[in-house]
Every structure is written in structure tokens, then in C-alpha cells.
Amino acid sequence: MKAIKTLAIFVAAWLILTVIGYLIGHAIFDPSKHLELEENGSAVHGKVIKLEPENHQLVHYSYRVGEAEFQGTGTAGGYNPGFAELNVGDQVIVVYIENSPEKSMLGYPSYDRSVNEQAVVATAVVFPIFPMLSIVGFYLMIRALRRDKATLE
Asked: Assign residue 42 a region: left if phi > 0, alpha if psi is -120 to 50, beta otherwise?
């Protein structure tokens, strides 16, 4: 009976830590942050205007909507070439919101959402591992100390 109770506590701890990991992953990667772009976005060709390899490989780009020109920053990859393949002047895909053309992103938001959803799941799975190892280690240490104490008595 005691073994079942201990197992139930470990399973409950694992589930709680998994939920915490999911919430942390969602807060960090937020798969819905480009939902408006995904639902109301239009794709255009933009142009790379500056590359910052030392600043998280930031890509500065410009794009035109009608007669107006806009600029933005983002990361390479997705449906666009990777950072190493990009040069100033290269053409890239930019998605902007039609009624707010200043809001944009490099590449397609559906790709970004998919990658972020995967990152949330990975965080939920990986996050509990280290706290659970600590909990199990602490439990085993306490159990060994109790066994040693009982042996000494």
C-alpha cells in the first residue's frame, strides 16, 4: 500500500511539473503571437537591408504596400533562406496585416506557429526531468537514512 501511495505522489508531482513546463513554454514561445498575421496577413516580397550576425542573427528588411514602404526586423529561416545564405539586397517573403501594414514578419506565420508549438511541447516534456530527478534522489536519500537508523537501533 505504501508503494502505491509513493508512486501516486511521484505521478502527481510529474503531472504538476509537466503543466508548469507547458505554461513556461507557452509564456516563452507563445504560438499564438502571430495569429493575427496568420488570419489576416498578405504575403509580399521584401528585401534584406541589413544583417546583424552578432545580434542573434537579426535580419532587417523592407517591403512595399501600395506606394508606402515599411521596414521590420526578424529572423531568417522558415520559408526564407537561413541566415548564412542571406545577403543584403536578397528577396525574402514578408507577411503583413492588410489594415495595419506596419505589422509584419519574415516568412509565413503558420511555420512560426508550428515551430513554437513544438517548442512548447518539448518544454513540457523536458522541464519535469531535472526536478523529478532531484525529488527521487531526495526520496532515496531519506529512505536510506531511515533504513540506516533502523539498522542502528
From this structure: beta
Place of cell 509580399: 44
C-alpha distances (whole Å) from 73 to each of 1, 30, 94, 115 are 59, 18, 10, 19
Task: Check if the beta carbon of residue 39 is closer than 8 Å to that of residue 109.
Answer: no
Q: What is the 3-state secondary structure (H, E, C) of the chain?
A: CHHHHHHHHHHHHHHHHHHHHHHHHHHHHCCCCCHHHHHHEEEEEEEEEEEECCCCCEEEEEEEECCEEEEEEEECCCCCCCHHHCCCCCEEEEEEECCEEEEEEECCHHHHHHHHHHHHHHHHHHCCHHHHHHHHHHHHHHHHHHHHHHHHC
Q: What is the CA radius of gyration of the chain?
A: 25
Residue type, 119: A
Q: Identify the band that residue 31 occupies on the pLDDT scale cut at 50, 70 and 90.
A: confident
Distance (Å, whole) CA 139 – CA 133: 10
Q: pLDDT, tens digit, for every residue of 32-41?
A: 878 888 898 9
pTM of the model: 0.67
